[in-house]
């Protein structure tokens, strides 16, 4: 068998060891061309880097915010709310906080830093205040700067909604026109809330010198009333004239609108006479206490006289029978002249 040299090359991490094998003598020789970079001790222990050894963590501060969104939600106009933001040093070296400020700072404000230096693992707190000055949604951004090498400037978004109740009285002027005496004309006044917060109606006051105007609140119940955003309630206003005179009245409405706590509406109308009646009777020998009217009267205009003397007591108008009925003690004697005058109720 021919003699040959077989070269076996073994690749290590950073060296190549070549071993020559002689079929004749079977001895292995180190060629000495490359040496391992790993150093061996006298007892054979490897002192080089071990597989999987990543080394120690870098020494540096690290800023961590407790949240990146500070949401106040809804808050009434003129109110105030506060929320906290915690700053923590999650690194392994002192954290230097340089400043904390808001981008706009209109309805939001932030407290001063309680501590400028945070040792590893320690925290400090910022207080953010919300004071809405309108009925709207608000946003801002809080910037916190430090010596964190990875994130020197960090942000937290701030949000809140201001709630504002607004009152609108429509129409603010209402003319009922001319209305026959004894008839009733009805119109509606709307109390609306175009704002974004609940409106509280605390009081209403109708100033009507003649008493011919009235507001019907039976269906609304007792005050206060709540008007939700974007809704309204109706106030039925009635005018029932009893005299041929022009009339005016004012309706005052008090509410929780901070800018217009009281609004007013003006009502105008004129009473008109449809006709007059003059019914005359002569008491018979057998006295009666009841005298029927020829037409429907305006009750407040009825005037009764006996033998030419007008009297306001001792009688009453009975709507069911359309009659003037005398009290038993006031029944006119036989032969007495009874005269009943009144304004006739017009067609309504």
Structure in words:
By secondary structure, the chain is mainly beta. It folds into 4 domains: 1-37, no CATH class; 63-163, Sandwich (Immunoglobulin-like); 168-272, Sandwich (Immunoglobulin-like), CATH 2.60.40; 275-344, no CATH class. 0% of the residues lie in helices and 51% in strands. The protein has no helices and 28 strands. The protein has strands at 5-11, 16-22, 28-30, 63-65, 69-76, 81-89, 95-102, 108-110, 117-118, 123-130, 137-146, 153-163, 168-170, 173-180, 185-192, 199-207, 213-215, 225-227, 232-239, 246-255, 262-272, 275-282, 290-292, 303-306, 309-311, 315-318, 323-326, 337-344. The protein has a 5-stranded mixed sheet, with no helix packed on it. The protein is rod-shaped.
State the gist of this model.
By secondary structure, the chain is mostly beta strands. The chain has strands at residues 5-11, 16-22, 28-30, 63-65, 69-76, 81-89, 95-102, 108-110, 117-118, 123-130, 137-146, 153-163, 168-170, 173-180, 185-192, 199-207, 213-215, 225-227, 232-239, 246-255, 262-272, 275-282, 290-292, 303-306, 309-311, 315-318, 323-326, 337-344.
